[in-house]
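Kindly inspect this one:
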Amino acid sequence: MAVAIVRRAAIFVASVLVASVLVFLFMAVLPGDPAQVALGVNATPELVERTRQEFGIDRPLVTQYLDWMGNVLGGDFGRSYVTREAIGPQLVDRLGVTLWLVGAGMLVAVLVAVPLGTLAAVRHRRVSGAVISGASQLGVAVPAFLAGIVLVQVFAVRLGWLPSGGWTPPVVDPVEWLRGLALPALSLGLVQGAVLTRYVRSAVLDVRREDYLRTARAKGLRPLPALLRHGLRNAAVPVVTVLGLQLATLLVGAVVVERVFVLPGLGSMLLDSVAARDLLAVQSIVLVLVVGVLLVNFLVDVAYAVLDPRLRRS
């Protein structure tokens, strides 16, 4: 298993390097001059040229990339072309908000999907199973931002139980932090939970047809204890794949949800940077998001080896 993990780690590092090149080239070929954008349309050509030299964007692309990646590996993401402020500290602060949101959304999705998906599989020929399947199919069709708007209308506007937006750091006021995180996490988690419920149902149905589960029942175990003891771990292998994909989806979905709930996360920073044409900030944020997705895929591969003994032997 150790050899497989080392191999996957090497693939992860290579993927990050390739992704960094692609992100850099994509930003480099976009039309417009960052120096001209930073100075405005009334800037003189001499001032624009000096600013290009200050930003270092007058050098060859290979030199720019190597300098940028060298600084990123050292924790320095450079300074904003527009505000001239350091990008790294902003990324750290915004990333913390996004990680809390994505983690809470994923927790909600798992808490919803595992029991409901298992129940839908166990009762797939009964009315309750059909109701759960129908509700999950309906939830798949609902976008996260629409779920957020509905939740705000119900729990913030009409009932007044939770705030409609804003962010309080957990170290300042844990209670207000939880109250502010509840609706965004629910809007992300309920939609992804509907998707995951269908996969859990399918995985559990497949496991229930396996010979080892029939053997466990023949030894005297009741259906549900047999499933919990012998089936869920095997059903978890395909579900982990979907969880990895959903984590990537949550990172992307957080961009819109943060706007709906006015959260100062990476998504809001990305949209603000795009609007201001702050290409270096956009480049850094996109790289962080891509590395996050690749890291999730790496952790999923490691989870395979932990869950499935056949992969460890191979």
In short: Residues 39 and 47 are 8 Å apart (CA to CA). The chain has 13 helices and no strands. The domain at 87-313 is CATH 1.10.3720.10 (MetI-like fold).
